[in-house]
Write a sequence for this structure.
């Protein structure tokens, strides 16, 4: 089972890497939004440090949302999803593989560049480390939750708008506790509770999202 999942992950990564723009755009969007924000709002270091957690997390959320389409819609339109299901691959494994590949291609780069954005917003090193850790725990949940909405909207016209309406309410708990953890670290208060909740949300997403996504995918393809 592990070998088949690894093969699916490699397939997903190879498919999305055929078009480099599909994985460069979300990272570029994250960098552009976060770097332009200080220019548009204020250069004051104190205010920037206060705004940094929310800006980083909102930009990361939107970047993940932007990346979902490239992992599902094209595969659906070309018949790849149907062929995998006909070959006996379970929908749960497909959703899990796509979510892992999505995180490796989109989520992990966001975690890596987060310290650069933290320096730009003048947040201290401790808060910068927590920003990385919170993104490391939270972005996989966003990829998994997003997979449910993406599977529900496969083949629909203007599916992107519906996807946003479906998944944004589910993204909110991750956004709140992710930004709250960074804010707590920045002001020197305890942030372990927020990180624990992010970890719990990740475990819950891993347990439920693949099954929900597989059911939605079956409905869309049938």
């Amino acid at each position: 089972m592990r070998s088949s999942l690894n093969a699916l992950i490699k397939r997903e990564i190879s498919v999305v890497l055929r078009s480099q723009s599909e994985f460069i755009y979300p990272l570029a969007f994250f960098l552009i939004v976060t770097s332009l924000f200080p220019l548009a709002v204020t250069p004051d270091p104190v205010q920037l440090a206060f705004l940094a957690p929310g800006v980083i997390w909102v930009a990361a959320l939107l970047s993940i949302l932007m990346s979902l389409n490239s992992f599902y819609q094209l595969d659906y339109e070309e018949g790849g999803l149907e062929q995998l299901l006909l070959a006996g691959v379970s929908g749960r494994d497909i959703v899990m593989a796509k979510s892992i590949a999505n995180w490796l291609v989109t989520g992990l780069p966001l975690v890596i560049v987060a310290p650069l954005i933290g320096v730009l917003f003048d947040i201290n090193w401790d808060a910068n480390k927590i920003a990385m850790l919170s993104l490391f725990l939270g972005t996989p949940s966003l990829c998994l939750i997003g997979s449910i909405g993406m599977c529900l909207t496969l083949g629909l016209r203007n599916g992107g708008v519906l996807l946003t309406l479906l998944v944004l309410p589910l993204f909110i708990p991750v956004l709140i506790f992710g930004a709250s953890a960074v804010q707590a670290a920045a002001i020197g208060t305890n942030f372990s509770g927020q990180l624990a909740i992010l970890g719990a949300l990740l475990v819950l997403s891993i347990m439920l999202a693949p099954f929900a996504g597989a059911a939605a995918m079956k409905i869309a393809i049938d």
User: Anything to note?
Assistant: Residues 2-221 form one domain. Helices lie at 2-17, 21-40, 45-77, 80-86, 91-120, 125-152, 159-187, 192-221. The chain has one domain: 2-221. Residues 137 and 200 are 9 Å apart (CA to CA).
